[in-house]
Design goal:
heterodimer, A: Rossmann fold, 2 domains, five-stranded parallel β-sheet, B: alpha+beta, 4 domains, seven-stranded antiparallel β-sheet, 18 helices, elongated, binds flavin-adenine dinucleotide, binds iron/sulfur cluster
Chain lengths: 257, 644
């Protein structure tokens, strides 16, 4: 019997699931190798009960009703892989974690009483253990394919926790930070995107989140030396992966007057 | 011969000549406001009239007030990108219906002409030659590209802001190693021929006798550059100085600034570290191994199952600097730094190695002695392509350990290891636990993906095998002496063939004591071998376990407790977890054994096992080449050093 795949969505933009659909050349082979049991974005099959061999979970835990979904997904899945910034650190919607969510609700919605929401947008791993975290907003499709392939053939996925700078240098891009003085978060950001932005003469803004051993303090000092005011430095760290602990701590340090 | 010159207006003829001889011309060109190395159509692609201004962490191109074609210092790119590309496919594998095929991947080795190679960069190419071409194992892709490459060197008559080639003895002039050399003197180039290939290209050029005084102008220009180096560094004593100061407070200071981003290592023209990745299709039928530039600033570089050797940024910066300026000399007979200054410019936070070295030197403790480089060895080609072999028998040793017997005709020395691999899963080092010339035994503990898949193989299954690699237990030095063997857990596997050799040669090994520790009685390996050895009157076998039930009649407790009454002329062979080996050697030494008669087998991350990938370094040594078996006194200092 083919291994059963589920793709589950929490609070998210669906971009991660679309990344899976973006694997146009491989989709057929994936469909052949796996039994796609539950993937509402792409298929009419609806089987949220499981069990599953591999579950990809997208989105953050943002509403009370998502808590049992996550617990159930964990219980019914041999392998649970959290994909994307939201599932792994709370995502962009975690910006509300710094504010009063009740206030936000009344500002955004005409009838806030219909909205049930948690005070904080949380990563999946705060509720249940996950077997693998694939980062990126959205994740890189080749990396997603690698995670699926590695699961099927039984190898450790080739997903490295190194900085974007390694990919940037392997690609031969001219370093925007050094050659043009464009602030770049590449040195503290997890590789995976292939250094897309530096290749287009833009600084990395860390849509893959903090890398292992990120020395955010030294980079933030350098950004200040390059003329960015501390508040602006704080904003750079408080973006898509702002709620990830190293970035959260750095933005807090720079915010202080 | 009188000096020859090529008019600047005739430079196009050099491009024509190189193309006529079959070369693709690559060299410096202005792109994206930086001088990069790329394909050149002709002289019009050279950065005429441009220079660069650099400082720690900054680089800007600027107009010159003349139209010089080579009036700039080296940039982010180096020639290593062409000879040792940032990604390269190594091996292709196909598994189908039980058959397994390994073949070398096709290589791109089209001849390139490097136009504008500076002294520091030519020296850097020669440094990498030592890694990839001059050791025991030759990298076939690098070798082919390097032999095909044509070098047009260019002298530096102006020094850059961050250059210190004069300190490192690699520039500013280029005196040897080139095919052709150009010295830019305003409206013409002074041309020197350095090889037969160079002569044949030169014969196609409209050369004229150089005006009298051009050689003088070259020498004066070089003297001027030498006198205006942007940086200096005293380098000759650095290996011993850095290794004598592994606890210097400056390492903490630089670690606070260093991002561990790896830019310094990737722009450095001599850094050679790479990772090997296994890639496959969804079914695992087609697979391949690719390599990619890696760096000691990544965590994976120094990580094995269950241990991370360089967790802190401090450990990684120290690895970079002590390797580059120190260990390199012991490994390859030359410094790993040519003084090009790239790592200073392209460090996002402007860390300057010359400053770090000066700070360490200013308050240093005495230097230590470093080992000399190994003697040259005969070269082995295609070292990364495994042979296909088949499992003939599987014996389950414990819950998570099996011994595979693999049909493979090979001569090995006890203590050496193989790289065992499965196509879509990966490749790992495993010691040779025995063999008879027709087959080898490998005892494998299933701890992760690759070892788990290997341990699940069944008779008839195919796998990839490379080797044998590494150093052996010093069985000749043991002849006529009492031998004490201390083993912990799976650490008995690499010692098994040595014990069998000693069992088979009674006259040479009059007394062998085996002290073996495991977690529980159920974790003991080779129980029938243990009985066989114990039955030999020359052998004394003692087994201890950490925990045991009531029916256990052996010892309980750590293996070091068994180390007593060591004969003063004994040789000790120790293998097990690093911590256990440390305690064991200390106990042996406390019992009177000199450290130079204790041998240990070390474990580090290995992607190649042929001293190319750089991951298994232990200070001046490669564990795959100089180890895994080391005489303890040679590594004692590093053994006790946190973060190495
Ligand atoms: C000289 C030597 C001799 C040895 N002899 C023996 C022996 O006789 N018996 C024995 O049982 N063990 C032996 N070992 C240890 C053995 O090599 C390890 O247990 C094995 O490498 C574990 O690999 P794994 O993939 O199963 O484990 P994992 O935990 O999956 O991986 C271990 C490490 O390998 C790296 N890695 C593995 N796969 C990948 C990948 N796809 N992408 C990126 N990184 C990856 C990672 O850095 C990871 O931390 C020896 C080791 C050495 C160095
Ligand atoms: S551009 Fe950014 S990602 Fe690329 S090397 Fe420079 S700092 Fe690193
Ligand atoms: S260490 Fe720095 S200066 Fe030395 S060769 Fe490497 S990049 Fe150049
Ligand atoms: S270990 Fe040495 S060769 Fe490898 S990246 Fe570090 S400094 Fe460079
Ligand atoms: S020294 Fe500079 S370039 Fe090298 S890893 Fe540290 S921050 Fe990056």
């Amino acid at each position: 019997m083919k291994p059963r795949l589920a793709v589950i969505k929490l609070a998210s933009c669906d971009g991660c699931q679309v990344t899976l659909l973006d694997l146009e050349d491989e989709l057929l082979a994936i469909g052949e190798a796996l039994d796609v049991a539950h993937f509402t974005e792409a298929s009419s099959r609806f089987d949220p009960d499981g069990p599953f061999d591999l579950t990809l979970i997208e989105g953050s835990v943002s509403q009370p009703r998502q808590i049992p979904i996550v617990r159930h997904a964990r219980a019914m899945s041999k392998r649970l892989v959290a994909i994307g910034a939201c599932a792994n650190t709370g995502g962009l919607q975690a910006l509300r974690n710094w504010a009063n969510h009740e206030e936000y609700l009344s500002l955004v919605y005409a009838r806030p009483e219909y909205i049930e929401t948690l005070a904080e947008s949380k990563p999946v791993s705060e509720l249940v253990p996950v077997d693998f975290e694939l980062n990126g907003c959205p994740p890189d499709r080749h990396q997603l394919l690698e995670v699926i392939t590695a699961f099927l053939v039984g190898r450790r996925p080739n997903i490295r926790s190194e900085s974007v700078c390694l990919e940037c240098k392997r690609a031969g891009h001219v370093c925007v930070h050094v050659a043009y003085g464009i602030p770049c978060l590449g040195p503290v950001t997890q590789a995976g995107c292939g250094a897309l932005c530096p290749g287009k003469r833009r600084g990395c803004y860390s849509c893959f989140g903090p890398r292992e051993n990120a020395n955010t303090g030294s980079l933030a000092d350098d950004l200040e030396r390059k003329g960015l005011p501390p508040a602006e430095v704080a904003r750079r760290f408080r973006l898509i992966y702002g709620w990830a602990p190293p970035f959260r701590a750095e933005s807090a340090r720079r915010e202080k007057p | 011969m009188t000096a020859q010159a090529l008019a600047r207006d005739d430079l196009g003829a050099l491009f024509d000549a190189l193309r006529a001889e079959g070369y693709r011309v690559v060299g410096p060109t202005l792109r994206d406001d930086a001088i990069v190395l790329a394909d050149l159509r002709g002289p019009e692609d050279l950065p005429a009239g441009w220079t660069v201004r650099q400082g720690p962490g900054t680089y800007r191109v600027e107009r010159r007030d003349d139209e010089a074609l080579f009036g700039f210092a080296v940039g982010q790119h180096s020639w290593k990108g062409f000879l040792f590309p940032s990604r390269e496919r190594l091996v292709e594998m196909r598994r189908e219906d039980g058959a397994l095929e390994h073949r070398p991947a096709a290589r791109d080795a089209a001849p390139l002409a490097f136009l504008g190679v500076r002294g520091c960069d030519l020296a850097a190419i020669e440094v990498q030659d030592r890694t990839f071409m001059r050791g025991r194992h030759v990298d076939p892709g690098y070798d082919a590209r390097r032999r095909a490459a044509f070098v047009v060197a260019v002298d530096c008559l102006e020094a850059g802001d961050l250059c210190f080639c004069a300190s490192m003895g690699t520039g500013p002039g280029v005196e040897r190693g080139f095919d052709l050399r150009l010295t830019e003197l305003g409206p013409r180039f002074l041309v020197a021929v350095g090889s037969a290939r160079g002569a044949s290209v030169a014969a196609r050029l409209p050369l004229r006798a150089a005006p009298a005084g051009d050689e003088r102008r070259r020498r004066d220009g070089l003297d001027d550059a030498r006198a205006h180096m942007g940086r200096t560094m005293q380098a000759d004593d650095l290996p011993g100085l850095l290794f004598g100061n592994l606890d210097h407070p400056r390492w903490d200071d630089v670690a606070a600034r260093c991002l561990a981003c790896a830019n310094c290592t990737l722009v450095c023209p001599t850094c050679f570290c790479f990772s090997v990745e296994t890639v496959s299709d969804l079914s695992g039928t087609e697979a391949r191994r690719d390599r990619a530039w890696d760096s000691c600033f990544t965590v994976q570089h120094g990580q094995i199952h269950g241990a991370t050797f360089r967790p802190r940024i401090k450990d990684r910066y120290r690895q970079w600097l002590t390797h580059k300026l120190g260990a390199w000399v012991s490994q390859f007979g030359v410094s790993g730094c040519t003084g090009c200054g790239r790592c200073i410019a392209w460090c996002p936070v402007g860390i300057d190695l010359t400053e770090e070295v000066a700070a360490i030197r200013a308050t240093s403790r005495p230097a230590v002695a470093m080992p000399p480089p190994p003697a040259p060895a005969p070269a082995v080609r295609e070292p990364m392509v495994p042979a296909t072999a088949r499992v003939t028998a599987v014996r389950r040793e414990t819950d998570d350990v099996v011994t595979l017997r693999i049909a493979h005709e090979i001569a090995f020395r006890p203590g050496q290891f193989h790289m065992l691999g499965l196509p879509a899963i990966g490749e790992v080092p495993i010691s040779i636990a025995g063999g008879d010339g027709r087959s080898v035994d490998h005892t494998i503990r299933a701890v992760g993906a690759v070892s788990g898949a290997l341990a699940a193989l069944e008779p008839g299954h195919a796998l990839g095998i490379r080797g044998p690699f590494g150093s052996a237990w010093p069985l000749e030095a043991c002849v006529g002496r009492p031998v004490v063997v201390v083993a912990g857990g799976v650490g008995l596997a690499p010692l098994r063939a040595a014990l069998d050799t000693m069992a088979a040669r009674p006259l040479d090994y009059p007394s062998v004591r085996l002290l073996y520790g495991a977690r529980t009685p159920a974790d003991l390996l080779f129980t029938d071998d243990l009985q066989r050895w114990a039955a030999d009157p020359r052998f004394a076998v003692r087994v201890t376990v950490d925990h045991a039930g009531a029916d256990w009649r052996g010892d309980v407790g750590v293996v070091t407790r068994l180390i007593t009454d060591v004969p003063p002329d004994a040789v000790a062979l120790v293998c097990g977890p690093e911590m256990m080996m440390g305690f064991s050697v200390r106990a042996l030494c406390a019992a009177g054994l000199p450290a130079e008669r204790a041998y240990v087998s070390m474990e580090r991350n290995m992607a190649c096992a042929v001293a190319h990938c750089g991951r298994c370094q232990l200070g001046p040594y490669f564990v795959c080449r100089d180890g895994p078996v080391f005489r303890f006194d040679r590594i004692a200092r590093l053994f006790d050093q946190e973060g190495f």
